[in-house]
């Protein structure tokens, strides 16, 4: 079906009649434990200036891993260790196909796009003095210019895990001399940030210094299963995080001092956090401790007072005594560093996917301490929380509202940009094109974000879907798919196909939420209880049940998926 014909369906009452019918034929209820008050659909819209975006990352989509003098990253090194491992060598080939990707965004009505710049594509060794890869500069200029030509604003991440391998080899990466404020890694990241501001900042007004430093610190330098695979679980993550925070502050001040007056942009950082909910009332303090060790580790210094959370410092000081150490494994910032770090965020970037149940596990001494045991908590999941393809991703929509409220209260009511949120499917044959569980995920999570905005007065300014495309999912390779668009990784041309979720998200953007009386909201109302694995009758105390209703729809599952999909593709 042509784009024009598809738009016609979506813009009229036919949208409900066709799309709802199709979805009802294949729906799988995805969420349990419905609470009538907490989980009710909120009708309304986001503020008129609300930002809708989708996101990707350089190593996950670009490919062209060694083209035109690009240097190797630590992820190139990891991926090439095993001949049977998936790699990002080609990925989605967005290095060549970025104009087509931009057209996908335009068709969805997106006005913003979050992507990352590959440090080794700009500076092959990570150091400017060793030379600039002009082809990398050309590529990002072309990408930015094409976005703006299509009325899409770039939101640029400077570091999304692909550290130049040379910096890891020469200096130990983010482990480099974590005790001073003049270490080479801080200076080198500052040089890289300055170069990007100079070359792209006239058009880029949203900068994110680091994406999910928790991942780089703990998985990269602590337990070491992510690149650069440094295994030092007692201290490595704390050293790396310390350096990342100082590097962020360096990049922020460079923009503030040298570019803000002329470019008038914003600089922030994106932090990830799983919300921690107490399993019992007795676990309430443990749940807060969990969030402080997760989010507060980075947010407290940047958005509060330049230093780590008090509960983190006191916990680690106690553990130092138990371990017979003279100093804590958690480094200390100098008074000058605290002043430099505090307030270095024009906005609060948040990546959130899931929630965990927290139990208190304090305070038994541990023979081999590490970050996970340092928190003195246990984590699990409620039995009625459904799981996505990713083993860690449980669907708990209300968790994002709680987390947004926590950020508002804890960090002085900052402007919050949700920079990632999404759900994975398995890679399978036939491909999941009617990705109903992803539609339900976006429906429920965005409604919780709207509750935070409209009911709790949280300053949520943006929502970003992860991801625009199926892509290279790190250690999971291509076995998990988060995309709004399917990518055929067996096709040398990496053909993209819109999934049903892209149609849903297009309507969500067009309606800016769930306006009262709209055809889109009527569709959502009809889907709401199915997505929550219940029925209106059950919610209101009548007879019947979700399993009975679902079984009726299962009679129709023999209808070929692609015939149904053709109604909206």
Describe this structure in words.
By secondary structure, the protein is an alpha/beta fold. A hairpin with an 8-residue loop joins strand 15 and strand 16. The chain contains 23 helices and 17 strands. The strands form five sheets. The protein has an eight-stranded parallel beta barrel with strand order 2-3-4-5-6-8-11-13, surrounded by six helices. It has a three-stranded mixed beta sheet with strand order 7-9-10. It has a two-stranded antiparallel ribbon with strand order 1-17. It has helices spanning 3-10, 14-26, 58-61, 74-79, 94-108, 119-122, 134-149, 165-171, 184-200, 213-221, 236-258, 260-263, 284-305, 310-323, 335-341, 371-374, 398-410, 436-454, 500-511, 519-531, 536-539, 546-554, 561-565, and strands at residues 44-45, 51-55, 112-116, 153-159, 206-211, 266-272, 275-278, 348-351, 355-360, 377-380, 416-420, 425-426, 460-466, 480-481, 485-487, 496-498, 513-514.
Strand tally: 17
Helical content band? 40-55%
Residue-averaged pLDDT, rounded?
Answer: 90
Terminal Cα separation, in Å? Answer: 6 Å
Largest sheet: 8 strands, parallel, barrel
Strand order of the largest sheet: 2-3-4-5-6-8-11-13
Which word captures the global form? Answer: globular
Q: Tell me the number of helical segments per DSSP (H or I, 4 or more residues long).
A: 23
| Low-confidence blocks of residues | 1-32, 544-569
Radius of gyration: 23 Å
Question: Which structural class should the secondary elements be placed in?
Answer: alpha/beta
Roughly what fraction of the amino acids lie in strands?
5-15%
């Amino acid at each position: 079906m042509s784009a024009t014909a598809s738009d016609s369906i979506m813009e009229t009452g036919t949208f409900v009649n066709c799309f709802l019918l199709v979805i009802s034929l294949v729906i799988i209820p995805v969420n349990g434990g419905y609470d009538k008050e907490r989980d009710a659909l909120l009708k309304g819209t986001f503020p008129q200036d609300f930002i809708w975006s989708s996101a990707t990352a350089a190593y996950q989509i670009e490919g062209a891993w060694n083209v035109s003098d690009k240097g190797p990253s630590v992820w190139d090194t990891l991926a090439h260790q095993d001949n049977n491992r998936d790699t990002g060598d080609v990925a989605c080939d967005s290095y060549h196909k970025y104009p087509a990707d931009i057209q996908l965004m335009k068709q969805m009505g997106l006005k913003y796009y979050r992507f990352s710049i590959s440090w080794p594509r700009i500076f092959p060794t990570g150091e400017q003095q060793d030379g600039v890869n002009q082809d990398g500069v050309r590529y990002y200029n072309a990408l930015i210019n094409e976005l703006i030509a299509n009325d899409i604003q770039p939101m640029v991440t400077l570091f999304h895990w692909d550290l130049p391998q040379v910096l890891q080899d020469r200096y130990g990466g983010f482990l480099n001399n974590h005790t001073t404020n003049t270490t080479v890694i801080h200076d080198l990241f500052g040089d890289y940030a300055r170069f990007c501001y100079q070359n792209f900042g006239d058009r880029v007004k949203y900068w994110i210094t680091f994406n999910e430093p928790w991942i780089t610190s703990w998985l990269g330098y602590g337990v070491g299963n992510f690149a650069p695979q440094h295994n030092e679980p007692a201290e490595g993550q704390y050293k790396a995080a310390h350096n990342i925070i100082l590097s962020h502050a360096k990049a922020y001040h460079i923009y503030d001092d040298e570019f803000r007056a002329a470019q008038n942009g914003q600089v922030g950082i994106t932090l990830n956090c799983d919300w921690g909910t107490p399993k019992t009332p007795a676990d309430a303090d443990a749940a807060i401790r969990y969030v402080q060790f997760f989010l507060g580790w980075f947010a407290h210094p940047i958005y509060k007072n330049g230093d780590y959370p008090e509960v983190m410092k006191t916990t680690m000081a106690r553990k130092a005594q138990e371990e017979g150490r003279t100093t804590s494994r958690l480094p200390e910032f100098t008074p000058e560093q605290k002043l430099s770090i505090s307030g270095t965020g024009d906005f609060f970037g948040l990546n959130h996917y899931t929630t965990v149940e927290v139990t208190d596990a304090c305070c038994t001494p541990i023979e081999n301490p590490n970050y996970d045991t340092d928190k003195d908590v246990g984590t699990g999941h409620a039995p009625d929380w459904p799981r996505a393809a990713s083993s860690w991703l449980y669907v708990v929509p209300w968790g994002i509202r709680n987390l947004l409220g926590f950020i508002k209260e804890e960090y002085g009511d900052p402007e919050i940009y949700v920079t990632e949120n999404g759900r994975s499917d398995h890679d399978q044959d036939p491909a999941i094109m009617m990705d109903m569980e992803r539609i339900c995920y976006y429906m429920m999570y965005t409604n919780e974000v709207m509750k935070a905005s409209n009911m709790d007065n949280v300053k949520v300014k943006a929502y970003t879907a992860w991801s625009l495309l199926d892509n290279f999912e790190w250690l999971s390779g291509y076995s998990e798919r988060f995309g709004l668009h399917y990518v055929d990784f067996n096709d040398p041309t990496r053909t993209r196909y819109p999934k049903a979720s892209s149609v849903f998200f297009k309507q969500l953007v067009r309606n800016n939420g769930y306006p009262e009386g709209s055809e889109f909201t009527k569709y959502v109302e009809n889907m709401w209880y199915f997505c929550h694995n219940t029925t209106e009758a059950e919610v209101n105390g009548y007879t019947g049940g979700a399993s009975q209703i679902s079984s009726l729809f299962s009679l129709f599952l023999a209808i070929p998926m692609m015939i149904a999909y053709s109604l909206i593709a």
